[in-house]
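[step 3/7] inverse_fold.run input=structure_tokens len=115
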């Protein structure tokens, strides 16, 4: 828990969110400014500022984040059609919240390369 972190506050419930799932290691909630019909953020309970700060001990948690995204995509019915998973890291990628989060975007077609 980092006391000034928005996503730590969402995980602990002091800032409200539309929760999608939670378990011992991972918390998922609806993005407040959705960029697709489904836009969910999957975060680790442990505060990690950027993907540059991941430890070897986080490997299993990152795997759980990705598998949680795939499970939600299946539940929402677009796993086979396709979806996008994104980690933004630091300023050039537009990271706005410094607690790592996996964006799950689905329900429409995505172009490549991204902006
Ligand atoms: P990023 O630019 O990768 O750091 O993404 C941060 C994401 O957090 C953006 O998609 C925002 O819309 C989202 N966001 C910011 N504040 C909240 C909030 N209070 N609840 C849910 N999502 C949020
Ligand atoms: Zn945090």
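[step 3/7] decode complete -> sequence:
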């Amino acid at each position: 828990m980092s006391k000034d972190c928005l996503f730590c506050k969402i995980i602990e419930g002091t800032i409200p969110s539309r929760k999608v799932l939670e378990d011992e290691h991972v918390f998922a909630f609806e993005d407040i400014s959705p960029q697709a019909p489904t836009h969910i953020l999957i975060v680790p309970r442990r505060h990690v500022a950027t993907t540059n700060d991941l430890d070897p001990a986080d490997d299993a948690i990152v795997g759980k984040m990705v598998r949680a995204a795939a499970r939600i995509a299946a539940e929402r019915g677009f796993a086979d059609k396709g979806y996008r998973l994104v980690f933004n890291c630091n300023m050039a990628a537009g990271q706005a919240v410094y607690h790592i989060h996996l964006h799950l975007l689905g329900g429409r077609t995505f172009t490549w390369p991204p902006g």
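[step 4/7] annotate
The two ends are 32 Å apart (CA to CA).
The chain has a mean pLDDT of 97.
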